[in-house]
Amino acid sequence: MPWIQLRINTTSDLAESISEQLEESGAVSVTFQDTFDNPVFEPLPGETKLWGNTDVVGLYDAETDIDELKAILNLEQYSYKIEQLEDKDWEREWMDNFHPMQFGKRLWICPSWREIPDPNAVNVMLDPGLAFGTGTHPTTALCLTWLDSLDLTNKIVIDYGCGSGILAIAALKLGAARVIGIDIDPQAIQASRDNAERNKVSRKIELYLAKDIPDNLQADVVVANILAGPLKELKPQISKLVKPSGELGLSGILANQSQSVCDAYQTEFVLDQVIEQDEWCRITGKKL
């Protein structure tokens, strides 16, 4: 069946309330999209990330009375667009947008419905979904490329803010002997556990909520792909997890935030040159 799509241009401050109005008016789905057509990738667990200029998009049954909808929502106060959409196999269209992705020299992230490009490569099977982290965001890509560049053979690795488990699983597939995933959200812990089982590495991964981290836990390599603010606030905890001469990788940082994060960590780490990708960056270094 065909559908009616209503797109309202607004700000991040108003987006949530408009979303609620669309749902109350009968929208079968409501999504957020950056006005400049950038999709919203990989929010933190429990968080909805919105751009400053946000489109709220509602999908309605084709039989919806447009004039009545305009009156209910008082659309004249917004900049909006209403259009007819053809019926599509939405699941198939969604799946077609995801392809195997290569990071570094050896590592591939592959959705389950695609053919593996190189059976001899290091392949992580991961399907997009409610899990937090699929490799599509520059920060995840930066971390995956960094892990691929390291010799993780027989190393202990900690993934702080593990989300989907993508970095933890990649580390195991790249040779790590043991990986510990840590997150604040039970859903992330479950997603990591499920993905580890799917990749047949569940026996080598330990998963903890942040409040349950064992005492004296340390690793040869620690990677934390969260956000600049939490990285600075958690500096004492994250630094403590890195063994002397161990490796640290931080991301989830906008390029203009990199100096403040470097300032927080440089007292305990010899930092490398900051690497940037699409306005995001990665900070790495070795513990003193």
Automatic annotation (TrEMBL):
<comment type="function">
    <text>Methylates ribosomal protein L11.</text>
</comment>
<dbReference type="GO" id="GO:0032259">
    <property type="term" value="P:methylation"/>
</dbReference>
<feature type="binding site">
    <location>
        <position position="140"/>
    </location>
    <ligand>
        <name>S-adenosyl-L-methionine</name>
    </ligand>
</feature>
<keyword id="KW-0963">Cytoplasm</keyword>
<keyword id="KW-0949">S-adenosyl-L-methionine</keyword>
<keyword id="KW-0687">Ribonucleoprotein</keyword>
<feature type="binding site">
    <location>
        <position position="161"/>
    </location>
    <ligand>
        <name>S-adenosyl-L-methionine</name>
    </ligand>
</feature>
<keyword id="KW-0689">Ribosomal protein</keyword>
<dbReference type="InterPro" id="IPR029063">
    <property type="entry name" value="SAM-dependent_MTases_sf"/>
</dbReference>
<dbReference type="GO" id="GO:0005840">
    <property type="term" value="C:ribosome"/>
</dbReference>
<keyword id="KW-0489">Methyltransferase</keyword>
<dbReference type="GO" id="GO:0016279">
    <property type="term" value="F:protein-lysine N-methyltransferase activity"/>
</dbReference>
<feature type="binding site">
    <location>
        <position position="225"/>
    </location>
    <ligand>
        <name>S-adenosyl-L-methionine</name>
    </ligand>
</feature>
<keyword id="KW-0808">Transferase</keyword>
<feature type="binding site">
    <location>
        <position position="183"/>
    </location>
    <ligand>
        <name>S-adenosyl-L-methionine</name>
    </ligand>
</feature>
<dbReference type="InterPro" id="IPR004498">
    <property type="entry name" value="Ribosomal_PrmA_MeTrfase"/>
</dbReference>
<protein>
    <recommendedName>
        <fullName>Ribosomal protein L11 methyltransferase</fullName>
        <ecNumber>2.1.1.-</ecNumber>
    </recommendedName>
</protein>
<comment type="similarity">
    <text>Belongs to the methyltransferase superfamily. PrmA family.</text>
</comment>
<dbReference type="InterPro" id="IPR050078">
    <property type="entry name" value="Ribosomal_L11_MeTrfase_PrmA"/>
</dbReference>
<dbReference type="Pfam" id="PF06325">
    <property type="entry name" value="PrmA"/>
</dbReference>
<dbReference type="GO" id="GO:0005829">
    <property type="term" value="C:cytosol"/>
</dbReference>
